[in-house]
């Protein structure tokens, strides 16, 4: 769910803004207007991956371990929104009970072709995020237009 | 929904395979193992856009109007999976009732920044599909590996 990515990014920006203070998950939950349990789940993932130092739990608190420029946006996307493991439910195809003799060449092969297409498209999508760091995101928050301008520059 | 794209693509391949026959939506539904109503909805969209000629309805039938090479895969993707109009439900942010004075600079600005980021990423994602036609897809169905090979060629 894309929201997990937004929560991770927002939390990291908040912790960066409040360096070197130790921030509780309760304070973060209030600031992001979110359920503390959801915040704690995502902080726990970021903590495991070394983005944060601190202690988990009700009286715990977190600080950033790295600079924003050292945090790749694509890494955070992959961490919070893992790639789809199977595209089966998005693809037409023969039923499981049908024998291959009953199938046309298209029906028998479309699943593999569309899986390849969706998989490569998703890898390219993720490559877009991997071009940026959290410092780029902070730049856009301070002065909107960084991502749009960059797209316009590449098109021209 | 990604399934709509798969259904459109599969239908076009089936009609191409059976040129110059007129194919009923019932026959297509049987071949794709899908509900005839869903098939008819998607055929109606393809018909409106000029991909098909024929008559809608129970006793209707369809034929392809264009060659597969003239059908852009990105156009079909945009037609069957329109871009997300609002990313609001994927983005953290202040509640509607909170006045701007209560917000931090991050909370006040993160929605616009993440909307730009997601929007540009989605445009790049769609640009990937726009590189191909239905003839490329047919090529991969006949000999799997076209999309994967192309990605490998670009990376090397």
UniProtKB/TrEMBL annotation, chains A, B:
GO cellular component: cytosol
InterPro entries, per the entry: Tscrpt_reg_Rrf2, WH-like_DNA-bd_sf, WH_DNA-bd_sf
GO MF term (any one): DNA-binding transcription factor activity
Name under which the protein is recorded: Rrf2 family transcriptional regulator [Lactobacillus sp.]
């Amino acid at each position: 769910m894309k929201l997990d990515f937004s929560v991770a990014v927002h939390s990291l920006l908040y912790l960066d803004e409040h360096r070197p203070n130790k921030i509780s998950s309760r304070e973060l939950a209030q600031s992001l207007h979110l359920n503390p349990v959801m915040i704690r789940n995502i902080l726990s993932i970021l903590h495991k991956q070394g983005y944060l130092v601190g202690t988990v739990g009700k009286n715990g608190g977190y600080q950033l371990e790295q600079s924003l420029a050292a945090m790749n946006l694509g890494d955070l996307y992959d961490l919070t929104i893992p790639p789809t493991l199977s595209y089966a439910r998005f693809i037409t195809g023969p039923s499981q009970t049908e024998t291959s003799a009953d199938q046309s060449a298209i029906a028998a092969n479309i699943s593999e072709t569309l899986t390849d297409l969706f998989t490569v498209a998703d890898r390219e999508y993720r490559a877009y995020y991997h071009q940026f760091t959290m410092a780029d995101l902070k730049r856009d928050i301070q002065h909107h237009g960084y991502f749009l301008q960059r797209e316009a520059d590449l098109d021209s």
